[in-house]
Design a protein that fits this description.
alpha/beta, seven-stranded mixed beta sheet, PriA_C, primosome, ATP binding, PriA_3primeBD_sf, 3'-5' DNA helicase activity
Length: about 700
């Protein structure tokens, strides 16, 4: 059986009295390290052993996972070089809480028990008793147990459309937007009020309860579009406008069960508005809703990565925006989902189609269908020649045209906060993070602060240079707040802020009023502005110059996504850049979605980089630099006898060599899945952290 933990499957004997029952795919409670854990049976057979313990109880009357899902888990674990239990934990919905009752077997003498266990002559809730003592009784054969999943509690749902009291009505409208809330406290937090107001709405009959499967978020208002049927089903569809891709998806789905994967909930909900019959399945839904749907999946399912394990066989599988880095799991197995979707489709024997505006380099060679793409409206401003900072004179003139015409604009920054650093104009000193090899970012709000965006270290900015005593400490590298401040001084339009660490209310803009939004790429997941005329990147190179061989492809995808920020029409895209001649810019000028990607693919093949081969990253860290280096070179030495030329890159310090007090070294392995498995088999997995198909090389791999 497999526990949802980073462990391989383990062997147990069947629960006492239930020997011979069908076990494969059922959830079962087992004793594990002194406690009770829930896992899934992934295999049967083998020779009984006196060292094996009995499982406690089956928790499902029928299999929870089919053999098809178990096979997928096993193949995915091989592909990701991860324990099967870790893959199970990544893709399963959370288990419901257990109802666990215990008592002594009738006839057992409570006098021989340790103090405090005498109450076990009658049934008692296991909670409150020492789990290790219970496990001793279990192993001695003296404990009788009853286990079952607790029934899901009802959730709060709105019963009436409005309340005459404005303050209570605001809470009711929050619930209507959410669709449901798991508790009064959860609704109070979402509405920013005390629980008393929620309780009053319940008492007055404006809010009631419903079972989790009956409570679903209301579908968003969308445009009804007719399906676009293609002559034959392609392996990928690219280009077009957003609604054209919606029409293609409608044509691909047709009748029956289908699974559509999305990288983010925001994009899922945007598509869902045009598919009222589809069922959403993602981490934003409550645990009971996901659990109940997982047990009976059907119809057209719009899901994030967890949908890959749903126990049903759809007629087809569609992966939307397969190149999005949001498909990369940040922890656990650190899987990149699209290759696993391909694995799942192949094992089920169903067709797979990639659907995106910009294809990923990895799928370029697949048989495709290209929708015509309107040529972007693009203006490149060469920062080597233009005047003005952080917004050049020509860009400011365009923003003033937006102002004069009462339109809307978006200004996109690669940095949060006020500036990338503080710099002494006399000696070049810049405050650095004491735990990371990075300059501290300057935040100007309040009294000001210097913040490390990797580890969270904060300190007050110095009044004078600590090195030379100069008062000329100046911010460098404008961020969101600097740009917003500069525009607020030069424009009479309202200027809003929209970033991951704080979002202004954009309701006036959504109602069509003029204004400017300054933000980060969080804007791509935000609401669409109805009268957007201009999108400006004051330092476009900030999105391009990253320590990642996929940075240019990511930048290419970002620019094309920006052309779709306004539904129906394309805003003017203005890029302030030191590299106007970059191939990404040239491809955008020509209106070619794929041309640059073919160049990028050829370059990677010449360098023997993905997708020609697979790559995995080994991360070694230690608080002492010499120990981290020793551990990294020990890995290289272990690989030396088996590795062929070009299969191992490094070891070398990470692009940011010190993060959160740890010195970080990387080794990169290249080859086929089978070859990488062979190389990794030579190593002690406790000495490094593994990142298959890496997307980022800055920061630490987290557990």
């Amino acid at each position: 059986m497999a526990l949802p933990l980073p462990l391989p499957p383990m062997s147990y004997l069947p629960p006492l009295g239930q020997e011979g029952e069908e076990a494969l795919g059922r959830r079962v409670a087992v004793p594990f390290r002194g406690e009770v854990q829930v896992g899934v049976v992934v295999g049967e057979g083998g020779r009984p052993s006196l060292n094996l313990r009995h499982a406690i109880a089956y928790l499902d009357p029928a299999p929870y996972l089919r053999p098809e899902e178990i096979l997928f888990l096993e193949e995915a674990a091989r592909y990701l070089f991860a324990p099967l239990g870790q893959v199970l934990a990544d893709f399963l919905p959370p288990f419901p809480p257990l109802r666990h009752r215990v008592r002594l077997y009738p006839g057992a003498d409570p006098k021989v028990l340790p103090p405090g266990l005498g109450a076990l002559v009658d049934w008692r809730e296991a909670r409150g008793f020492d789990p290790k003592l219970l496990d001793l009784l279990r192993e001695a054969g003296m404990l009788e147990e009853e286990l079952a999943f607790r029934e899901a509690r009802g959730v709060l749902v709105p019963l009436k459309p409005a309340h005459p009291d404005p303050q209570l009505d605001r809470v009711l409208q929050v619930l209507r937007e959410l669709g449901f809330a798991e508790s009064q406290a959860a609704l109070a937090r979402a509405a920013g009020v005390g629980v008393g107001r929620v309780r009053r709405l319940v008492q007055e009959g404006y809010i009631g309860t419903a079972s989790p499967e009956e409570a679903a978020p209301p579908p968003a208002d969308g445009v009804d579009v007719a399906p676009l049927h293609l002559p034959e089903r392609p392996e990928r569809v690219n280009g077009g406008r957003f609604l054209e891709r919606v029409r293609v998806l409608k044509g691909l789905l047709g009748e029956g069960d289908h699974l559509v994967l999305f990288p983010e909930v925001s994009l899922l909900e945007r598509f869902l508005a045009h598919f009222p019959g589809a069922t959403p399945y993602h981490g934003g839904l409550s645990g009971p809703v996901r659990e109940r749907f997982f047990r009976r999946p059907r119809g057209v399912v719009f899901a994030t990565y967890g949908g890959l394990l749903l126990p049903f066989t759809p007629r087809s599988l569609v992966v939307v925006e397969e190149g999005s880095e949001s498909y990369k799991l940040p922890s656990g197995s650190r899987a990149f989902v699209p290759p696993l979707a391909e694995l799942r489709a192949r094992l089920l024997g169903v067709p797979l189609t990639y659907l995106s505006l910009v294809p990923a380099v990895e799928v370029l060679e697949r048989k495709g269908f290209a929708l015509p793409v309107p040529k972007p409206r693009l203006l490149l401003l060469d920062l080597r020649r233009e005047r003005g900072f952080p917004v050049t004179g020509r860009a400011l003139a365009l923003l003033r045209q937006v102002e004069e015409r009462g339109r809307q604009a978006v200004v996109l920054s690669a940095r949060k906060g006020y500036s990338a650093l503080l710099l002494c104009q006399d000696c070049g000193f810049r405050p650095m993070c004491p735990d990371c090899a990075l300059p501290l970012r300057y935040h100007r709000e309040g009294k000001g602060a210097l913040v490390c965006h990797q580890c969270g270290h904060r300190e007050d900015p110095p009044l004078l240079c600590p090195r030379c005593g100069s008062p000329l400490l100046a911010p460098k590298g404008p961020g969101v707040d600097w740009i917003r401040e500069a525009l607020a001084e030069r424009l009479s339009l309202p200027v809003y802020r929209y970033a991951g660490d704080g979002k202004d209310d954009l309701t006036p803009l959504l109602e069509g009023r003029p204004g400017v939004v300054v933000g980060t790429t969080a804007l791509l997941r935000g609401p669409r502005l109805p009268d957007l005329a201009l999108v400006l990147l004051p330092l476009a190179d900030g999105f391009l110059l990253e320590s990642d061989f996929r940075a240019a492809e990511r930048y290419h995808r970002l620019l094309w996504a920006l052309t779709e920020l306004r539904p129906g029409r394309r805003p003017l895209l203005v890029l302030q850049t030191f590299t106007p001649e970059h191939p990404v810019h040239r491809a955008l000028e020509a209106g070619e979605v794929e041309a640059y990607l073919w160049q990028e693919k050829a370059l990677r093949e010449a360098l023997n980089y993905p997708p020609r081969v697979r790559m995995v990253k080994l991360e070694v860290r230690h608080r002492k630099e010499e120990r981290a280096r020793e551990k990294a070179f020990a890995l290289l030495e272990a690989l030396r006898a088996e590795a062929e030329e070009g299969e191992v890159l490094g070891p070398a310090p990470a692009p940011v060599p010190r993060v959160k007090g740890h010195y970080v070294f990387h080794l990169l392995l290249r080859g086929s899945t089978e070859r990488l498995a062979r190389l990794l088999g030579l190593l002690d997995r406790r000495q490094f952290r593994l990142d298959p198909d890496p997307f980022h090389f800055v920061g630490l791999l987290e557990d």
